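Write out a record, focusing on structure:
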Amino acid sequence: MQVFGNIAKNPERKVSKTTQRGYYEMRLAESQRGIDSSPTFYTVRVMKDVDPQLEKGDFVRVTGKLKADFYMSREGKPTGNLLVIAFEAQKIAKPAALMADLQAQAQAQEKKRSTGEAVTSPEEPVSVVQRVPTNNDGWYD
């Protein structure tokens, strides 16, 4: 399964009680486009003892296995949460953020031109492709 969303809680290193191996755990909020008043939250466990170098607010793609984790709450009520045992968690640049970076670079070059400074341009033009997930795991360009 793949989940796309924003990290809601910074990754925290933990150690398995049974195997004594380290892993990282975080909370992920998956939401639809635009403002979603009720996002789906997942607990994500990245089963590698390597810091994923992610932080709260990052937009990520998580690939792993979905499990329902049921337990008794402190109040004695049965509760549960959605748990993703992740093989990978990768930060993805949002197209809007990427476009903002490109616009900032263009404005900086325009400012240099207006002041008479030398402007360096890339050898090849930069193109931005927004990838949109389909219903299956393929991609449309």
Q: What stands out?
A: Strands lie at 2-15, 22-30, 40-46, 59-72, 78-91, 132-133, 139-140. The radius of gyration is 20 Å. Residues 134 and 140 are 7 Å apart (CA to CA).
